[in-house]
User: Which sequence fits this backbone?
């Protein structure tokens, strides 16, 4: 009686070398233990989930359209939801919209359809770690472009586009995960123009778009490209940050030749996003007044929590720790004094029963060793106070200095 | 103002050549028009969806575990559901179980993790079309092995395994889609032994396992392999045929080294299957008595509908039309006189306002031109009578014979 399971290892496809556990995943496991105050997970505030509303909407859907909600449906997605999405994107029709099972699936399908082994994909430094996980199995080469406070540095971007052809550039202009940065209007315009000049499509990931604290939202790269003739931006957004991530409903908006291929790819990947979930999302967002209030509530809550974290950072961090003050979104991005390794710091922080995400995995080029991401979206005032005090102790211990009492 | 969307076509990855619209898809569109009686879609009977029960379970989950149901969760899937699945598979623990968003996603992730361009994947002739759509983007070569009434022909199978290494073989032993065939016990044993002898893993797709009409279910290939030491079968099943396909909850059970890679691949592909849907499925299946009754109801309904279709086939088909009488599942598989092209027949059938799926797309080697699949799972007695009469007219017209009145 021989167990043959060891037989699998040598059978893995070459791409499987690049399919690995992520740091975030291991950390999420760790910090689910009691007693920890974790700022690691990018979890939306569960206390704001519209649970009751979701219950009512589900009952209505099952009563009125139960068979449709539970049967197989088309790969493109629920038409009323696609219409609602198209109505919010300049120049889009439902035929430009593909519903996906979370933005993550959008990233996977776009990678599948566009990336050959060795294709150059341009990313921000840092960039969203989940996008790297989605693209990696398709074996791209990454071109990492540095950022300043306004987003991608233009000179470095143009140099990269000029050097060798790039398949597409992946950009998170609004409250970027992980850095929280907001790309300014002039920078947006310049990047859209550069992309058009070098005939390089932009993949715009706008998961955090609704989460601005003050002021008005800036136009999307998709809208700016549309004003110049369009066809060069793929737009990705989601309900994970405004309704509930557990529903897994997001969308890709893009030029039709691409959307068609994404639809065929999705058909092979999972047939369609659960019908009930799509109908549920539509039931919630179609009531614009309610949806507006829901988003306002999230904005105000995150702004308050962000403010608490800013105060705690000022109180407990050493003077040579730097950070970007977010204008929206869910994250603080910290830059420690050069030489401090944030993975080592995490080990110390865990001893103090707190946690964050080390920054290095967000850099496709392996830089950013002294950076870290803290999420405030799910934390109470007390947790932020206590947790940052713990983190402060860990940092001061590492630097061999006396912590702030 | 230039629209750049034409820019995408030359940017598609090489694999995208193999990401195409499927015949099934186009046919499903067609037959959604009123007036048609379609036997094309493999749609479970919507009149048996447990809508009320799903409503109650959703309310209970939202009331008692609302936050968990709507928050991000682990990639592996909802633990109680994985425990329930493991308890039904010999030798399995929850660590052998990965929840996926429909069997289709299981096929995609297994392809992603195992198939290199040019890898040989052995399939039945015919095989499930959706598996070909899932595997195609990973650019395998298919090795098609013919079947007799009992399943894969053993001599041909051994010759294929001997000739050149095969990455894995994909088998649907129970009420295969499309042919409805049930692989007998001796054939099952022989195939499991051959696979072990040639160190070739089996991917067992068991989507229709519960849908037997009479008698007792046969042991799965997974169970037979387990009895010989295990580690050589990957098992795939789903709730799409017993509860509701729109929920998109299925599972892969397999050796841990493979399941771990599938988990990492799924993390990059869609993070996790919607939590609410997984919890909902668990709420339904955990009540074994109710779940047993639900499946019995489906079995009896399909057996009745199958019987109606058999009677109508005997009445309206020409004498030289052959078919397999199903012992379970959802499909009749017809073999027309050689020379009759079932795609041409479909065009005639559509003129008569009925539809089926031509068999050829189910053959990886392009054979099977004179075969066709009819689904009885969703049809009423009247629809079966009228539809088969229409199909009979179309066939007799094509053959230049007088139809049965």
Assistant:
């Amino acid at each position: 009686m021989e167990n043959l399971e060891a037989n699998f290892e040598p059978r893995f496809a070459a791409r499987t070398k690049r399919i690995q556990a992520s740091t975030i995943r291991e950390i999420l496991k760790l910090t689910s233990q009691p007693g920890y105050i974790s700022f690691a997970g990018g979890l939306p505030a569960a206390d704001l989930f519209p649970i009751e509303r979701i219950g009512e909407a589900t009952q209505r859907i099952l009563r009125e359209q139960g068979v449709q909600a539970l049967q197989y449906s088309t790969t493109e997605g629920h038409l009323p939801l696609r219409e609602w999405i198209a109505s919010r994107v300049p120049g889009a029709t439902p035929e430009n919209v593909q519903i996906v099972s979370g933005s993550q699936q959008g990233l996977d399908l776009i990678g599948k359809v566009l990336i050959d082994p060795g294709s150059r994909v341009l990313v921000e430094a840092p960039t969203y770690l989940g996008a790297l996980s989605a693209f990696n199995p398709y074996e791209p080469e990454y071109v990492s472009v540095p950022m300043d406070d306004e987003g991608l540095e233009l000179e470095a971007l143009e140099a990269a586009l000029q050097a060798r052809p790039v398949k597409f550039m992946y950009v998170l202009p609004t409250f970027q995960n992980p850095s929280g940065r907001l790309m300014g209007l002039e920078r947006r315009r310049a990047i859209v123009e550069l992309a058009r000049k070098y005939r390089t499509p932009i993949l715009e990931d706008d998961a955090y778009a609704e989460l601005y604290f003050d002021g008005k939202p800036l136009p999307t790269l998709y809208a700016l490209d549309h004003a110049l003739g369009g066809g060069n931006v793929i737009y990705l957004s989601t309900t994970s940050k405004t309704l509930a991530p557990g529903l897994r409903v997001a969308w890709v908006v893009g030029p039709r030749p691409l959307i068609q291929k994404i639809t065929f790819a999705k058909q092979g990947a999972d047939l369609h996003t659960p019908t009930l979930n799509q109908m549920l999302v539509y039931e919630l967002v179609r009531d614009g007044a309610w949806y507006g209030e829901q988003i306002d509530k999230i904005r105000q809550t995150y702004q308050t929590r962000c403010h608490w974290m800013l105060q705690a950072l000022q109180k407990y961090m050493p003077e040579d720790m730097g950070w970007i003050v977010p204008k929206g979104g869910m994250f603080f991005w910290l830059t420690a004094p050069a030489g401090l390794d944030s993975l080592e710091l995490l080990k110390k922080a865990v001893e103090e029963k707190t946690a964050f995400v080390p920054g290095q995995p967000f850099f496709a080029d392996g830089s950013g060793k002294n950076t870290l991401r803290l999420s405030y979206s799910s934390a109470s005032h007390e947790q932020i106070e206590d947790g940052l005090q713990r983190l402060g102790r860990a940092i001061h211990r590492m630097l061999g200095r006396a912590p702030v009492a």
User: Anything to note?
Assistant: DSSP finds 13 helices and 14 strands in chain A. The mean pLDDT of chain A is 95.
